[in-house]
UniProtKB/TrEMBL annotation:
Domain DUF58: 47-266
Xref: Pfam families: DUF58
Signal sequence, renumbered to the chain: none
InterPro entries, alphabetized: DUF58, vWFA_dom_sf
Name of the protein in question: DUF58 domain-containing protein
Organism: Saccharopolyspora ipomoeae
């Protein structure tokens, strides 16, 4: 599915997205709001024995002292949860080869999380990362508000909305700091980005994970992982405008590129994991809705509590 951005076409795309999400995700999340958005909750529930992987912040020290065995108390989940979407729409999202651009994948992922949250009557807000800063959509309930936010994402995806010359390397820190400011209540945050951004965003993400349930959705295109042997190729950095001509028939170059890309992605996964975020990788050349279905099913079936999971396709 490709996103088109004149208003009637965009409405049709969003209607198709909603239908697709309803058809494919409904079985994974309907009837179990905790399975999709396990909000932290504010009230302690029943105690149980600690098992490896439990959040140490849930340890009940009084119960542990009385029983001489480590116990935790799972919080009672809030039925009404604030859901925030942090969507990176910077220049690097313009890249795409087979299945479309990463910008489209960002829209599709935001729609999946958004419609799933709307089913459960949660309030939804968004912080959009654009080339010249951030744009905030406040928390509101209802599908109309969600559709307006998704329409804005589609509008920002147009080439006319992209700066010329490029604005420079994206900094994710302001958006993460901003969502922490506008989301004082514990909730669920989905961060959709390729994370090919200025370094230094770990601390902001870690602080978010201390208070909220955070899912980091990494957007990837296959050409970012491996160069094809197609001869002389001119590549351009969409965020800086810098161009470089490379000889893709050079096997050593391709191998160095693949190794550097592997280390880069492993580094991103390591940072996300250390921060405490759940990690989902979506690729432009794969079935994105299928990846989301499997991810949501994993969340639904894992043991109740604060457990960090990873689903990297």
């Amino acid at each position: 599915m490709r996103a088109h951005h004149d208003q009637p076409a965009t409405r049709r795309v969003l209607a198709q997205l909603e239908l697709l999400v309803n058809q494919r995700l409904a079985g994974a999340v309907h009837g179990d709001y905790q399975g999709l958005f396990p909000g932290p909750g504010n009230e302690a529930g029943e105690g149980r024995l600690y098992v490896p992987g439990d959040d140490v912040r849930l340890i009940d020290w009084n119960l542990t002292a009385r029983t001489t065995h480590t116990h935790v108390r799972d919080p009672i989940r809030d039925h009404e949860l604030d859901v925030w979407l942090v969507v990176d729409l910077s220049a690097s999202q313009s890249f795409g080869t087979r299945g479309g651009e990463k910008r489209e994948l960002a829209l599709f992922g935001a729609a999946a999380f958004g419609f799933a949250a709307a089913w459960l009557a949660n309030r939804i807000g968004a912080v959009l990362v654009v080339d010249d800063g951030t744009e905030v959509w406040p928390l509101r309930s209802g599908k109309i508000h969600l559709q307006a936010a998704l329409h804005r994402i589609a509008q920002l995806n147009t080439r006319d909305a992209r700066p010329d010359p490029p604005a420079g390397r994206t900094d994710l820190r302001p958006a993460l700091t901003q969502v922490a400011t506008v989301a004082p209540r514990r909730g669920f945050i989905a961060v959709l980005s390729d994370f090919l951004v200025e370094p230094g965003w770990y601390n902001e993400l870690h602080r978010l994970c201390q208070r909220h349930t955070v899912v980091a959705v990494e957007l990837v295109d296959p050409l970012e992982m491996r160069l094809p042997a197609v001869g002389s190729l001119v590549v351009e950095d969409p965020e800086t405008g810098e161009r470089l001509t490379v000889d893709t028939l050079d096997r050593g170059l391709r191998e160095r590129y693949e190794e550097a890309a592997r280390q880069q992605r492993e580094g991103i996964a390591r940072v996300l994991g250390n921060a405490g975020a759940e990690h989902l990788r979506l690729r432009t050349d794969e079935d994105w809705i299928g990846q989301l279905v499997r991810f949501f099913q994993l969340r639904r079936h894992r043991q109740f509590g604060y457990r960090r999971s990873s689903w990297v396709a």
